[in-house]
């Protein structure tokens, strides 16, 4: 099924906004507590929501394929990839910019416990597109060949943090061709991450840092344990005495 999908206008608007502003603005961070959580109090027993805006992230390629292994798992391959990930905030936010793709892949949380949802969009010259929803893990980028691959699982049930996806739910298709030309990948905002204290659910919200190109715990507790573990069988990281485990090796940004 083909749908009207003004992706190029969305990207053009972002570029125009950057040109007018002349710089990429970063969301301000509240002071960190000893756990490295942005927006948490000193004891981390009480938390305050610090996320003022939600983001989407766009990656573009000149061609690609979406191959099924017959078990319901897919490999998404994008070639001729633009070496930057574009990010911008939902309305009324104005933060927008570009993250080098290798830094984005390192700083964003693509862990198997709670992988991000994303939309694979195949636009064409007539302002229409095919679009499917997937969750993404195991990103690999080859800077020399300009090739980006993900492990992907197509979703029939899904939810999104970003309002952009909510506005395009009616555009989603049941399938896309195995091989295609131009492709846009739109990735949802940072998800919840596992924590060992401060949240009854064991899950805390995470937020995108435009200045540090990464997702970091940012104060608000997520409602339920399943919010940071979407796989059928999930084991939270086991800590050894005196050793703190984290979702990814990137340290949170320091505040002045």
Contiguous low-pLDDT stretches (5 residues minimum) are: 2-6, 12-36, 39-50, 233-253
Compute the gyration radius: what is it? Answer: 18 Å
C-alpha end-to-end distance: 51 Å
Form type: globular
Tally of individual helices = 3
* Range of strand content: 25-35%
For the biggest sheet, the summary is: 11 strands, antiparallel
> Could you say which structural class the secondary elements and strand pairing correspond to?
mainly beta
The helical percent reads 10-25%
Mean pLDDT: 75
What's the total number of strands?
14
Order of helices and strands: EHEEEEEHEEEHEEEEE
Oligomer: single chain
Features:
single chain; 256 residues; mainly beta; 11-stranded antiparallel sheet; 3-stranded antiparallel sheet; 3 helices; 10% helix; disordered N terminus
Question: Care to describe what's here?
Answer:
By secondary structure, this protein is mainly β. The strands form two sheets. Strands 1, 2, 3, 4, 5, 6, 7, 8, 9, 10 and 11 form an eleven-stranded antiparallel beta sheet that branches. The chain has a three-stranded antiparallel beta sheet with strand order 12-13-14. The chain is globular. A hairpin with a 4-residue loop joins β3 (63-68) and β4. It is built from three helices and 14 strands. It has a domain at 3-28 and 54-187. The model is unreliable at 2-6, 12-36, 39-50 and 233-253 (pLDDT under 50).
